[in-house]
Amino acid sequence: MGDRGAAEERRTAEFGTFVAGASGRLLHLGALLTTEPFGTASPHSRPSDSHPTDSDTGPAAHRTDLELLPAARKLLLHALARTYAGWDLLRQEDPYDRTRRELVDRFSHTAHHHRRSRGGTLGPLAPHERVVLVLRLFEDVPQGQVAAMLGLSEERVTAVHERALETMHPLAVARFGRHPARTHG
Amino acid sequence: MADRRERGVRQLLDGPHPYVPPNLVEEATVCGGQLLRRRRLARRLALAASLLAVALFTVWAVHSQPWQREPATPAPPPGIGW
Fold this sequence. Notes:
The complex is a heterodimer of chains A (about 180) and B (about 80). Chain A is mostly helical. In chain A, about 65% of the residues lie in helices and about 0% in strands. Chain A has helices spanning about 1-35, 60-65, 70-85, 95-110, 125-140, 145-150, 155-175. In chain A, α3 (about 70-85) crosses α4 (about 95-110). The N and C termini of chain A lie far apart (about 50 Å). By secondary structure, chain B is an all-alpha fold. Chain B is about 65% helix and about 0% strand. Chain A: It comes from Streptomyces tardus. Chain A: GO terms for molecular function: DNA-binding transcription factor activity. Chain A: This is RNA polymerase sigma-70 region 4 domain-containing protein. Chain A: It holds the Pfam family Sigma70_r4.
C-alpha cells in the first residue's frame, strides 16, 4: 500500500505541473469550441485596462467576466480528470495531446449542447466545423491526424475546413483588414 | 490565397488565454481520483468474476468428468422380436 501512496503522490505532483502549464491554452481551446466569449475582443489590447465602459463595469466586473466559461470549464475538467486517471498508463503519449483528444471527444459527443452560438468568435460555425478549424489552425495538428482523431476521411476534413474558412474569412477581414500580420511562420 | 485566408482566421483565434480558476487542479485531481478508483474496482470485480467462473468450471469438470467416454448402452438381448 505504501507503494501506491508514493505513486499517487508522484502522479499528483506531475499532474499539477502539467495543469499549471497547459490549462490556459486548453481552456482557450475549450472556449473556442463552446463559443463562450472571454475578455479578448481584440487580441492587441490588454484585458486589464481596455474596454473603457460605463462606470458600473470596472475591473472587478471584467474579472468576473473572465471567470465565467462554464461549458468550457466543464469540458476541460472532464478531460483533465480522464488524463489524471490514465496518467500511469500514458507511456509515450504526451499528456497535452491526450487531454486535447479527451476534450475534443467529449465536445464531439455532446455537440448538440453546443450547436447554438454563445457569442464567441466561432459562433457562426457548426460544432464539427469548429473542431476542424481549431485543430488545424489553433493547434496546428496535421490534416491526417485530425482525420484520424475524428474518424473521418482526409477529403472530408479538407471539405469541412474549406467551408469553415469560407465562413470565417470575411469576419477576419472585417476585423483585421485584407492583410493580416504574419503571426505564424 | 488559401494561405492568406488561414492566416487571417488564425489571427482571429489567437490571443491571450482566458483566466483559469485556481482550484481547477484540485477539482480535476479529485474527479480523476474517483474515476481511477472506480476503474480499479471494476477491474477487480471483473477479475473476481473470471476467477469464480474458472473455479466453478473446474468443480463441474472434476465432478462430471465429461472427457470420459460414456459406457456403451448394452445391446438388446438377442432373440427378442426376431
